[in-house]
Design brief:
Number of domains: 2
Structural class: alpha/beta
CATH superfamily of the largest domain: NAD(P)-binding Rossmann-like Domain
Distance between the termini: 40 Å
Largest sheet: 11 strands, mixed
Radius of gyration: 19 Å
Number of strands: 11
Strand order of the largest sheet: 8-9-3-4-2-1-5-6-7-10-11
CATH architecture of the largest domain: 3-Layer(aba) Sandwich
Bound molecules: pantoate
Oligomer: single chain
Number of helices: 10
C-alpha cells in the first residue's frame, strides 16, 4: 500500500512518520506543485523520548501513479482548495480519508469525487509540530475509520497497517457519530482555551462554562440521534481536558501564532446545523464571535 499524506501539519506528520517506521510506503503530496520535489527530512520524537529520523518523498498533483490511499490532514479550511487540483485527475479507485478537526467538507468531496471510496477518520493522537521538520508525539490516542459512501466500505483493510503504526486503529460502523462527539469536544475546548490563551487544563477552573455549553447543545445533538445526557457530554469533555491538560489546543495555537482558526467548521458548523433545525445556540454564538474578533486582527475576510 502506498500512503499519500496531504497536509504535513502535526497529525499528518505524525501519521507519515509512524507509517513509514512500521514499514509502509509513504509520501507527502503538495498540490501546489505539479511534480516531485526534494525529499523532506523529518525528526520524530517518540512518546518515550527517543528520536528517530525519517525521510519522506514529496510528490506533486501530476504524479498520479505515486498517489495511493490519500489521507487528508490539512486544516479543515484548506481541504477543498488543497484537493481542487486533483478533481478529474485522481483515479476513481483511490480512497480518500478525511482526517481533520471540524465538519462540513464531506459534501464538497462527495460532489467532486463521486466515484472514489470516501472515508472519515477520527483520531485522539496527540502531536506537536515544533518546526517544519520536527514532530513530537505528545499523547497516545485512538484512531477510528469509517465509510462515508458505499465504495468506502471496501476499505476496512486500511485499519490494520494503521494499528501497527500507531498502536491503535479500528473500524467504526458509526463514524459520523464519532465525528460529532469530536465536534462537541472541539467546540467546547478549542474556543475557550483560545479565549483564555492557556493550556487546556485551565478549563478545570471553568466547569460551569463547560456545563452550560454542553447543555445548550443537547437539543441539537438529540436531533442528530446522539442521546447522551448533558452530564455525559460534560463528562466526555472533562475527560479530554484531563488527558490533555498540559497541551495547548490547536485553536489556542492558531490564535497565538496569528493563523486562521478552524472555528467556521467547528462552532460555525454547529450554528449552521442549529439554524437549519430551528434552534438557537446563543452561548456558542457568543464564543464564535469572540474567536472571529480575535482572528480579524490578522486574517482578512
Ligand atoms: O484540536 C485540538 O487541539 C484537540 O482536538 C483537542 C483534543 C480538543 C485539544 O487538545
Amino acid at each position: 500500500m502506498q500512503w499519500t499524506i496531504l497536509g504535513a501539519g502535526a497529525v499528518g506528520s505524525l501519521f507519515a512518520t509512524h507509517l513509514q517506521r512500521s514499514g509502509q510506503k509513504v509520501n507527502l503530496l503538495d498540490t501546489r506543485q505539479p511534480h516531485r520535489q526534494q525529499a523532506k527530512p523529518m525528526l520524530l520524537e517518540q512518546l518515550d523520548g527517543s528520536i528517530c529520523m525519517c525521510e519522506l518523498d514529496c510528490i506533486g498533483y501530476q504524479d498520479l501513479a505515486q498517489i495511493g490511499c490519500l489521507l487528508v490532514t490539512t486544516k479543515v479550511w484548506q481541504v477543498t482548495h488543497a484537493l481542487q487540483p486533483l478533481v478529474g485527475l485522481l483515479p476513481e479507485s483511490c480512497p480518500i480519508v478525511l482526517l481533520h478537526n471540524g465538519m462540513g467538507t464531506a459534501e464538497w468531496l462527495t460532489e467532486h469525487f463521486p466515484h472514489n471510496p470516501l472515508l472519515a477518520g477520527v483520531t485522539s493522537c496527540g502531536a506537536l509540530k515544533t518546526d517544519a521538520s520536527h514532530i513530537k508525539h505528545t499523547g497516545f490516542g485512538e484512531t477510528w475509520l469509517g465509510a462515508l459512501n458505499a465504495a468506502g466500505e471496501q476499505w476496512q483493510t486500511l485499519v490494520s497497517p494503521l494499528a501497527d503504526a500507531l498502536g491503535h486503529a479500528a473500524w467504526s460502523e458509526h463514524i459520523q457519530e464519532r465525528q460529532w462527539q469530536k465536534l462537541v469536544v472541539n467546540a467546547v475546548i478549542n474556543p475557550l482555551t483560545a479565549v483564555y490563551n492557556q493550556q487546556s487544563g485551565i478549563l478545570l477552573q471553568h466547569q460551569d462554562e463547560i456545563a452550560a455549553l454542553c447543555l445548550e447543545l443537547r437539543p441539537l445533538l438529540l436531533q442528530q440521534g446522539l442521546t447522551n445526557t448533558a452530564n455525559e457530554w460534560q463528562e466526555l469533555v472533562l475527560q479530554v481536558v484531563d488527558r490533555t491538560a498540559k497541551n495547548y489546543s490547536s485553536m489556542q495555537q492558531d490564535i497565538a501564532n496569528r493563523r486562521r482558526t478552524e472555528i467556521d467548521y467547528i462552532t460555525g458548523y454547529l450554528l449552521q446545523q442549529a439554524e437549519q433545525n430551528g434552534l438557537e445556540l446563543p452561548q456558542h454564538r457568543a464564543l464564535y464571535l469572540k474567536i472571529k474578533a480575535l482572528e480579524s486582527q490578522f486574517v482578512t475576510a
